[in-house]
Amino acid sequence: MKLWNRVVVFLMVCQFAVNAQEKKASLIGVAHAELSIKEGGKWVEKKYEGGTFKSVTSLKVPKSQWDHSHFIRYEGPGWESNKIGYRLYLDWRNVIDLFGKVTDTLVLPQVGQDGYESYHHMNPWGMDILNAGKSLGIGAVGRYVGNEVIHFKEVDSTFVRIENSKKLSSVIVNYKGWKTANEKTDLQSILSIAPNNRYTKHTINSAQKIEGICTGIVKFASIDLIKKESKNKKWAYIATYGKQSLVPDNLGMAIFYEIATVQNEVESQTDHLLVFKPSIAPISFYFLGAWEQEKDGIKTKDAFIIYLDNKLKELNSTNKI
């Protein structure tokens, strides 16, 4: 090979390495939200057969969409920071789940490309770490009626939209005609995450004043509930910590809420619940997961409580995190 050709090859290799590093760097310290659906296949009852995944920024959810329909990649929209990932089951369950990450780069575009099974096991990026079961998972919305939580089994239509900017990534879901206990309302849910943060800000807005709209944290028998209020009784949190991940290993979960918006706290069979006062005004709260295998993660209960207390002080003084 002539000297000039060798120089060209050398420069190309160097540029490739630089591009790879720049691409990796561009994924650090950012947030991302996405929605990916199949096209090119067909619906057979409530299952989508064939097709390949394509990223979209909005969707009117088909009536055929049900749990494990194989239509939406990892079953709903996802959002992540460089610390943690979340997903919403965009079907009757309306559960929010956790993706624990062992890396500080974005991972969601690669998750679920080969189906449901792979992300329930450890991957180079991490794994699904929450056994949500029939609960709300962490920070999802339901309605508490007659000692049980009603999910989203009866909805006239559901629309979802994805928004990404340098400072914030959001999933916006509009539920039209959500029916529970012979009452209907339209409900909007906005889930937002910022770079370098674990928490999601969740803003909900019901068109009707309805009793029992709630959020919560999945309940495990061996894990105690942690509670604390700010000194001025403005903000508070509920939290859990312990071996409650699917690994199993240590996982902390918390919800920060404005005390004036909450009617009462309830223990259901599956959740630690916060039941909101009936309102047509927007209600905002924050939820988060903190996994011990996260890069530079929180590894003890004491450290987790210190982290939560600092966030509570921040909320108390600025009314936001």
User: What is the subunit arrangement here?
Assistant: single chain
Spatial order of the strands forming the largest sheet: 5-12-13-14-15-22-19-18-17
Mean pLDDT across every amino acid position: 92
Low-confidence stretches: 5-28
| Net shape | globular
Q: What string, H for helix and E for strand, traces the elements in order?
A: HEEEEEEEEEEEEEEEEEEEEEEH
**What structural class should be given to the helix and strand makeup?**
mainly beta
CA gyration radius, whole angstroms: 21 Å
Give the helix tally. 2
Distance linking N and C termini: 60 Å
Number of strands: 22
Helical percentage? 10-25%
Strand content: 35-45%
| Sheet having the most strands | 9 strands, antiparallel
Describe the structure.
With 321 residues, the protein is mostly beta strands. It has 2 helices and 22 strands. It has helices at 3-26, 301-318; strands at 32-39, 42-44, 47-49, 52-56, 58-60, 78-80, 84-88, 96-101, 126-128, 142-145, 148-150, 155-164, 169-180, 183-193, 200-206, 213-218, 225-229, 235-243, 250-258, 262-267, 271-276, 283-291. The strands form 4 sheets. Strands 5-12-13-14-15-22-19-18-17 form a 9-stranded antiparallel β-sheet, with helices on one face. It starts with a helix and ends with a helix. Mean pLDDT is 92; it is low at 5-28.
Short structural description:
The protein has 321 residues and is mainly beta. The chain has helices at 3-26, 301-318, and strands at residues 32-39, 42-44, 47-49, 52-56, 58-60, 78-80, 84-88, 96-101, 126-128, 142-145, 148-150, 155-164, 169-180, 183-193, 200-206, 213-218, 225-229, 235-243, 250-258, 262-267, 271-276, 283-291.
